[in-house]
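Protocol step 4 of 6: structure prediction from sequence.
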Amino acid sequence: MKILIIEDEKELSASMVTYLQRESYTCDVAFNFIDGRRKMESFDYDCILLDISLPDGDGLQILRELKDDDKL
């Protein structure tokens, strides 16, 4: 299972990646809105863990885009 973590707090995202990789998940990380959108457009993910409050955008906008693209 491939997971995208969109989280601006680097220590929290590193902790999430460590835990998930121990459970045999593949993880990509984006630290901001723009990188998160770029990765979503480039790859198909089984799960996206999304921070709502990102420094350069609203995480809810990413959720709306996923819904509009029928990726939910």
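Step 5 (inspection) to follow. Helices lie at 10-22, 33-42, 59-68.
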